[in-house]
């Protein structure tokens, strides 16, 4: 077995996960380099969310290991591990009884940051995710879907974690907001250079955001390729995806110099 | 002498017995809450215990109240004073709604919200106090409300073992075959129950709106 290269932030080392004997993930071997954006692409039930939960130890692999920064998640203190990984889920997963401000401040607060530092960080994050300060005192139910998702991203980024994992993060948004968020997120990522694992079932989203795409099906990894090679792959399942999405306009996935977002640096 | 005249003539005693009644029901509900809410939390954490604990509380509720007073009578210290005995018995009855509602309230918190909290790196304790309990508080207060109203009603029977309270009038009235005297106990007891129900109902709705914000 290869020695883990130094720049791997996350490695799945023959990781499997079984629930009541049913295999949800089988023998996954995959590594994500620091600063890289990997998209886990697949249908529901393909094992992509399970893989994600193995990274922040919401689940432990039943066989094999998952290493974060070279250390197996089983050896990490789960609380420390999770606080170093930002997590974004569909519709934000915000606390309904917290204001936007408290939601964003959650991790800095439990990490005992001093109040002025938290305040400054919140202001900074609002600009980063494109939210107006007058939203801070609102509750999640008083926001639009897009605003909730932005708050979700801000919350995940709050304590500046080196790793960010997103599970169908933009899945609940209308197409226009969704496309906006994808572009902004890509611009953001090009600036932040975090290690990002993004789960989606949407090929267009994958092509737009990814450096590398890992395609999963039935709990197995089918291919793991850089975007340009992925598009040329002759793998039948890849072809099936490309065809299923071919009716849509080309999302220009090569991605260089395409940061027409309002807040590009 | 009509009912109101009787109440005025005996207002001193009505007041005393009402206060006694509030103490009996209040202390019993408080004790039940101090035991029942933690038990309700416990069985969300250790699901294997949920059946025995909920079952046990359920069985207690099926024991007729007079019989329960009788069973507890020989207990040392408790049995010495009617009020102690009454408070213990009322607390046992009030346990069930508190355990059940605490359990149901926490179980009904959106699992996605709990998982998000866990994924953010909240400890179990932070998750409980910052997320689960606040979001369950409406349902828990509904349990407190049921327990309180139940205790106020049952506390009238406590007079049978000399614990005092508004039941005194009721039992006395029964013995005297005098409706005025019975009403002098029954009406204030019913009013107490209605007031408690109303006040806790308002609190419940306010806390319930925490969840509705989602």
Helix content of chain A: 25-40%
As a whole number of angstroms, the C-alpha radius of gyration of chain A is 18 Å
| General shape of chain B | elongated
Mean pLDDT of chain B: 91
DSSP helical segment count of chain A: 9
Class inferred from helices and paired strands of chain A: alpha/beta
Can you summarize this structure?
The complex is a heterodimer of chains A (265) and B (214). Chain A has 265 residues and is of the alpha/beta class. Chain A has helices at 48-55, 78-83, 100-110, 115-129, 145-157, 175-192, 203-209, 227-232, 236-244, and strands at 8-19, 22-33, 37-42, 63-68, 71-72, 85-89, 163-167, 195-200, 212-217, 220-226.
Task: Please describe what this structure looks like.
The complex is a heterodimer of chains A (265) and B (214). Chain A is of the alpha/beta class and 265 residues long. Helices cover 35% and strands 25% of the residues of chain A. Chain A has a 6-stranded mixed β-sheet with strand order 6-7-8-3-9-10, with helices on both faces. Chain A has a 4-stranded antiparallel β-sheet with strand order 2-1-4-5, with helices on one face. In chain A, helix 3 (100-110) packs across helix 4 (115-129) and helix 3 (100-110) packs parallel to helix 5. The longest helix of chain A is centred in the last third of the chain and has 18 residues, at 175-192. With 214 residues, chain B is mostly helical. Chain B contains 9 helices and no strands. In chain B, helix 2 (11-45) runs antiparallel to helix 7. The N and C termini of chain B lie far apart (58 Å). The relative contact order of chain B is 0.15. Chains A and B meet through helix 2, strand 6 and helix 3 of A and helix 6, helix 7 and helix 9 of B.
